[in-house]
Amino acid sequence: MVRIHDTLDTAWLDSSSTSGATQHDETLGQAAFALHLDEIPLEQEQEGGADPSHAVASADAEHRSVNQQPDMKLVVISNRGAPFDPNKPQTSGLAAALEPVVERSGAVWMFSSENRGDGTERPLLLVKAGEGHVAELDLPAAHYRGYYRDYSNSILWPVLHSLSDRMSRAEEGYDSYRQMNNFIARAAFDLRDRDAFWVHDYHLLPLAGDLQNLGIERPTGFFLHTPWPTPDMMERVPNYRELMKSMLEYDLLGFQTNRDLNNFVASLRTYFGLESNDGVVTTERGQTRLQKFPIGIDPRQFAEYLAAELSPAEQEKISSLLQSFEGAKFAIGVDRLDYTKGIDKRVEAFNQLLAAEPGSISLLQIAPSSRADVDEYRKYKEDVENAINHVNAEHGTEEWRPIHYTNDPFSQAALARLYRAAHVGVVTPLRDGMNLVAKEYVAAQDPKDPGVLVLSKFAGAAEDFNEDEALLVDPNHPEEIADAISKAVNMPLDERVKRWRSMMDKIVSYTIHDWSADYLRELDKSRIAVPADQFHHLGLGWTNEAQMPLYQNYAAALTAYNEIDPADATLKEAAYADVKSAFEALAVPLKHTQDRLWDLSAPTASRDGGRGQELGARED
Ligand code: G6P
Question: Which candidate in 201, 260, 432, 608 is catalytic?
């Protein structure tokens, strides 16, 4: 190792001190070198290739950065995608969050299509979505049920939300879950040359290992949209140890809140005796960084929704709903029809409130059906509807219905209008990763006359909004929810404005674009695939062990060139050609290395073993 440093240094000095150098010599200087490196096209190795990602690569040429997001060609992978149509309803917080990221960052987003396939691998079909692309996958029918219904939604989902009573007893599903992850990894192989992979949610916990087994070595991060439970809860998941180990194949694990992050760290300690050191867990594979990234919304876009035109049918629906509340106060709840959302307890809260304060407020509950093929969801729907019928029968009159309930999904633009008209936003999930409805409700308010947010203390959003802002409640206790709604209904304007202002400032100061930029900046730091002590700083910049033979060839060619008498023009010309081709062989991998380093601004003892100074290393 040390020898080649000497050879290169000597060659370098010789080259710059050569007297009588021909015109070519100038191109061998450091400045010219830098120029050459910059000129190397990033996509050189893909040019003319039949690789389907080629089309994407060229479309990304005009890639623009978002909120200082690193300029990287990203692959986003999740089970569910977004509609990319403002007039269509969003299916989830995950979809609502990722849609603007993909539209603005030029990422390719892979997710499940509505169709099932026979498991045959097909080339990815990329469809333009803003500056990005989507690639929908027909997931294999044979494994879909085990993967989606059984393991993801009947086992992982309830446990992640600390509701293990809702967990299905069936142990099947794990094999299909693994097979499906494997299938998705193989589909992602077409995109292996992009810069980084960003995987989302509990359907894909083991995907990083599958990507790596296929030789995809790009930085790979994961973000969990749901909560992470305590270790004793997680133990109820079949194969939890294997699953958690596989998560340590990611370079970066992102969580919504400190509570989730701390629970994950506690699980690692409990199951494997692993400690995290300043948020870094070291395993045989390398390092996994753990961090909190609280997801946000795009408040500006939300304000635009308020002014956006609705389809005539939706406009009609909204107008008739608002008419039915005319003159009276109403609260709004918007949730997928999911037992984690605490809709039944909320309805009971209205039951109690209306018994104490008859006719004081009604509820508009929008609850689009979800996962109807899972038994627990069917049961829950019945329970919620029975409870609503009971309240309406008990407290309603000919002219007034206490609870308006619909399973219809609404577009974001329609929801924005309903949020704004509602006097109270009730967001009372039993557990929730973040809950973007809470933030959307706040963002849609009239600054001069804002409504009040009643928020579950077990929603991730309660880590962002404190009790001076939202009215925080325990969602398991209907009487607490009822008290909070009553307080909200009677809250004076100045207090409402004060609470709203403070929440709104937070929403504006950390948007969905800050969230993605922060995450991707952290993921970018994983671009060092080789341990830092294997990097060395030489004349041309940072390099690694594997590149040393290329340096050696280049140094030898340079020495040979310098030793030739300038008078012998033919020989000098031939030697120059050798130097040039040795340089070209070195330049591409060297450029690649520079791209994978992010903050090695100056050689330090820890990073180059103290050799940097000895070699007269410099910053390039
Ligand atoms: C939650 C999950 C998402 C999921 C969404 C809708 O928000 O975190 O990953 O996509 O629910 O559920 P579904 O099963 O319809 O995709």
Answer: 432
Residue 159, both tokens = 């446990």
pLDDT recorded at residue 33: 31
> What are 274-306's pLDDT values in tens digits?
999 889 888 777 789 999 999 999 999 888 999
Looking at the DSSP assignment, which residues form a beta bridge with residue 546? none
**DSSP-derived 3-state class of residue 107:** coil
Question: What is the C-alpha separation between 554 and 552, in angstroms, rounded?
Answer: 5
Query: How many Cα atoms within 13 Å fall on the side-chain side of residue 165?
Result: 2
Within a domain: residue 506?
no
Q: Which of 225, 334, 369 to mutate to test the pocket of ligand 1 (most atoms within 8 A of CB)?
A: 225
Catalytic residue among 225, 513, 536, 537: 225
Name which residue sits closest to atom 10 of ligand 1, judged by CA.
Answer: 80
Measured from the Cβ of residue 58, the count of other Cβ atoms closer than 10 Å reads 12
Probe residue for ligand 1, chosen from 77, 78, 91 as the CB with the greatest number of ligand atoms within 8 Å? 91
Q: Is 429 in the pocket of ligand 1 (CB under 6 A)?
A: no
Taking the CA of residue 226 as reference, the ligand 1 atom at the shortest distance is 8
Residue 186 sits in a domain of what CATH number?
3.40.50.2000
225 ligand 1 Cβ < 6 A: yes
Q: Is the CB of 411 under 6 A from ligand 1?
A: no
Are 403 and 392 in contact by the 8 Å Cβ rule? The answer is yes
Our answer on whether the CB atom of 92 is closer than 6 Å to any ligand 1 atom is yes
Residue 253 in contact with residue 276, Cβ under 8 Å? no
CB 288 within 8 A of CB 327: no
Distance CA 384, CA 363 (A): 14
Same structural domain, 175 and 241:
yes
Domain encompassing residue 456: 303-491
Q: What is the value of pTM for the model shown? A: 0.77
Whole-number Å distance, alpha carbon 618 to ligand 1 midpoint, is: 50
For the segment 518-545, the average pLDDT, to the nearest whole number, is 66
Tokens of 293: 């990234």
The single-letter DSSP state of residue 459 is: B
Last residue of a domain, one of 467, 491, 515: 491
Please spell the DSSP secondary structure of 336-389, one letter per residue: -S-GGG-HHHHHHHHHHHHHHSTTS-EEEEE-----TTSHHHHHHHHHHHHHHH
Domain boundary residue among 239, 272, 292?
292
State the Cα–Cα distance between residues 501 and 498, nearest whole angstrom: 5
If DSSP codes are grouped into helix, strand and coil, which group holds residue 209?
helix
Whether 547 is covered by a domain: the verdict is yes
Mapping DSSP to helix (H, G, I), strand (E, B) and coil, where does residue 600 land? Answer: coil
Using CA positions, which residue lies closest to atom 8 of ligand 1? 225
Residue 438, classed as helix, strand or coil, is: helix
25 has a pLDDT exceeding 70:
no
Number of domains in the chain: 3
- pLDDT top residue among 223 and 14: 223
**435 Cβ neighbours under 8 A, 6+ residues apart:** 93, 427, 429, 456, 459, 460, 461
In a domain, 95, yes or no: yes
